[in-house]
Amino acid sequence: MKLILRPFIRRQMEMDALTEHPIFREIDSWIKVKSGALNIVSPSKKAMAEKYLTIYFTESYNCFHNMCMNYVRVAESPHIIYKTLHKIVDSTNEQAIAACIPTLFVDKMNTRFFKHIDILSNTIVMANLGGSYSTEYEQVSNVLDMALLFIQMEADSIEDTINHMNGELERVLKGTVYDRT
Which residue in 113, 69, 124 sits closest to 88, CA to CA? Predict the structure, then answer.
């Protein structure tokens, strides 16, 4: 009986450790604090950005958490990681459009996200080809480290992206739930 339980207990401990990864604290801080503290000049753009980021980070949290719960299967195929990253963007898009976030903005973010997803996915594949991981836990932990960097890069540039969408975004927000004029 002990031989059967030990691998299960080890896997459970590794899942627990993965779900305590710093990526989850970073995502949580964006959902609870940072999204509301954006330095965006236009109140309408800021309201829209807060909603978009809440959707994006909530979806990211859920997808990465699910990845941790299935980390052995995820470690077997980098394609699952690629699909997870795409799922975050696809689900964010669907929810953003349903929340009346203009497609002008969603399309702009998609261009950025997919470009960075390709870079992140290629980096993950190259790291996996090296065979430098001794366990699935190490491999998925490293993926979370890289994803954390990806999230920080995206989040740090969101203010500039929105502030540089001069009058066109402001015009499309006029008369919507995000209009604060």
Answer: 113
Q: Above 60 in pLDDT, residue 105? A: yes
Q: State pTM to two decimals.
A: 0.88
The DSSP secondary structure of 43-107, one letter per residue, reads: HHHHHHHHHHHHHHHHHHHHHHHHHHHTHHHHHH-HHHHHHHHHHHHHHHHHHHHHTT--HHHHH
Neighbours of 94 (CB within 10 A): 13
> Cα dist. 98→86, 103, 133, 146, 160 in Å?
18, 11, 41, 30, 24
The answer to whether the beta carbons of residues 136 and 72 sit under 8 Å apart is: yes
Residues with Cβ within 8 Å of residue 135, at least 6 apart in sequence: 14
The predicted-structure confidence for 114-144, as pLDDT tens digits, reads as follows 888 888 888 887 877 766 777 888 888 988 9
Work out the number of other CB atoms within 10 angstroms of the CB of residue 104.
13
Distance of CA 174 to the CA centre of its chain: 28
Residue 174 DSSP SS3? coil
Helix, strand, coil distribution of the chain in percent, nearest 5? 80, 0, 20
